[in-house]
Amino acid sequence: MTIYTRTGDQGQTSVIGGRVYKDDERVEAYGTIDELNSFVGQAVSLAEGEKFTDLREDLLQVQQELFDCGSDLAFVKIKESKYKVGPELWQRLEQWVDRYEQENPVLERFILPGGSQLAAVLHVCRTVCRRAERRVVTLGHQTEINEDVLKYINRLSDFFFTVARTANARLQVPDVEYVRSRKVFGHKS
Questions:
Q1: What is the mean pLDDT of each run of 10 residues along the chain (189 residues)?
Q2: Which pathway does UniProt place it in (predicted)?
């Protein structure tokens, strides 16, 4: 098997149902999701030991689901019944966020991305996820998309924020507060 195909040498790529230019909004959207998936893989590699078994498993599940998101966005035309991402995925993310948030200290001020190495990578995941969300929104302005992908990506950035804080909490590394932030959160979020 040869990895190179030469079919993209003119700046086009195949999507499900046709060919588009590599800078097409569809390719930008699923390409950014693919980039996010790589950072999630880095986070998985850093989530070592028994204290992160649950997080590692959840992140591996997220990686599978990010492939599903990309697949749903790669279709030029598809019937809704063919979509892989449905409401059960983003609803489960909400449950995960609630579960992990119970471990986190009270949040009163904005925090800086960082703390432990694992938390720092999870914050990178969060910011790349937000960029992916913007790309999906842009695509949705141009064509019909699976709205559940957008909801999933939106919840996923909340998940990354929460588990970045959980990683710090489990490692007993405090979140670093933004020094010029006034108290903006009055309770445990």
A1: 62 60 74 97 97 98 97 75 91 98 92 96 98 97 94 98 98 92 69
A2: Cofactor biosynthesis; adenosylcobalamin biosynthesis; adenosylcobalamin from cob(II)yrinate a,c-diamide: step 2/7
Which residues is 21 bridged to in the sheet? 12
- Report the SS3 class of residue 4: coil
- CA 174 from centroid of its chain's CA atoms: 23
Residue 102 and residue 49: Cα distance in Å, rounded?
21
Query: Taking each helix axis from N to C terminus, what angle separates 53-74 and 87-101, rounded to the nearest 10 degrees?
Result: 150
Cα angle, residue 101 at apex, residues 125 and 148 outer, rounded to 5°: 55
Looking at residue 46, what is its pLDDT? 98
The single-letter DSSP state of residue 105 is P
Q: Which of 116, 117, 49, 126 is nearest to 93 (CA)?
A: 126
